[in-house]
Amino acid sequence: MRATTIHAPFDIRVTEVPDAALRDPSDAVVRVTHACVCGSDLWAYRGVSKRKPGQRIGHEFVGVVDSVGPDVVTVRPGDTVIAPFVWSDGVCDFCVEGLHTSCAHGGFWGSPGSDGGQGEAVRVPYADGTLVKVPEGTDPALTPALLSLSDVMSTGHHAVIRALAGPGPGPDGWVAVVGDGAVGLCAVLAFRRLGARNIIALGRHPGRTAIATAFGATHIVAERGEAAVAAVRELTGGHGAHHVVEAVGTEESMRTALAATRDGCTVGYVGVPHGGSAGVDIADMFNRNVSLRGGVAPARAYIPELLADVLAGTLDPSPVFDMTVPLKDTPDGYAAMHERRALKVLIEI
Known about the structure:
Layout: E1 2-8, E2 11-16, E3 28-36, H1 41-45, E4 55-56, E5 61-68, E6 80-83, E7 86-87, H2 93-96, E8 107-108, E9 121-124, H3 127-130, E10 132-133, H4 143-148, H5 152-164, E11 174-178, H6 182-193, E12 198-202, H7 206-215, E13 219-221, H8 225-235, E14 241-246, H9 251-259, E15 261-269, H10 282-288, E16 291-294, H11 299-312, E17 323-326, H12 330-338, E18 345-348
Helix pairs in contact: 5-6, 5-11, 6-7, 8-9
């Protein structure tokens, strides 16, 4: 079977790999129909995060169940399913608590020894705890929206949930999103979904800010760094936003998010940290009573409720996909995202 592999910085290939196959009784094999390239995949592509030559890559996919092990009861061959970007057993204490990313038996697609999502098929460990079945008869036109639930929409939602969990007036206050990538845009959509009225999106790329506005942003701040903080504070009466999402992962973005937050309020962070320290000034946070909440999104916990809204027609994150390629052209998709010619690339298998 064909799958996407990474061999060195800027060296993505579609190569022949061993066929996905059942290994344990709780496994399923999913024939992938659609996958995509994540912003976090670009850190491997650029050489910032290391990978072994020939390692599989990709962690967002939807597909059709091809086969299941004898212990699997929730899905059957022929079912369309969404795979969150982490597999989990669904029964451990952490999974029961809704923190599937801390499952002791869990793992990330594309990690050494596992299948990556950007390929023709994937072996799914703990299928019952991992896969979310899509109702039979769902309109195929919804597939891009369903795919977004595997990571970016769930991650944007997680950031908003964490930001709103802290002090402040909730959605009735000022909210802000630092980062105009797919996750940041989905955070804008998540804020709107949860009732926010005053949403500031920080970004300068016209195509992306147009999506932010369509997703519910009421104000756009194109400045960066101290100028961005000043602009947010001017909009908010000099105090800063009550609930801020950091969706990039750089030191600059974290400093911006913390500085743009109102004293006594909260930053929800989901940007994968890279390129140096986190930019966190603990003394400043202490003096201003600013809280920092976030981390890896437990997508499996969020997909059922988000799926219900997609099926009802009240949630549509699909505009984050602005380029579609066949599997063989996946390397072109990586290059397009790296060069900012594409926001998020959808891969049709």
